[in-house]
């Protein structure tokens, strides 16, 4: 499946967190958020982007198809 990736800033009283939010476009559905510090590796190709990150202490690799 394809998904949308949104980069956002979350403001807290003591710090600013940079997060990536993942959404499924149709139907529009929130999938997951991750802080940029949790992303261990990032890559891209002509057809996809890849994220390697820890979620709840477990290493995962996410691949999202892109239109460009």
UniProtKB/TrEMBL annotation:
It comes from the Eukaryota. This is Uncharacterized protein. It comes from Nymphaea colorata.
């Amino acid at each position: 499946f394809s998904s949308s990736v949104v980069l956002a800033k979350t403001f807290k009283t003591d710090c600013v967190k940079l997060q990536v939010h993942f959404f499924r476009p149709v139907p529009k559905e929130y999938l997951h958020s991750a802080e940029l510090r949790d992303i261990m590796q990032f890559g891209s190709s002509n057809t996809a982007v890849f994220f390697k990150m820890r979620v709840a202490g477990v290493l995962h690799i996410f691949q999202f198809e892109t239109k460009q």
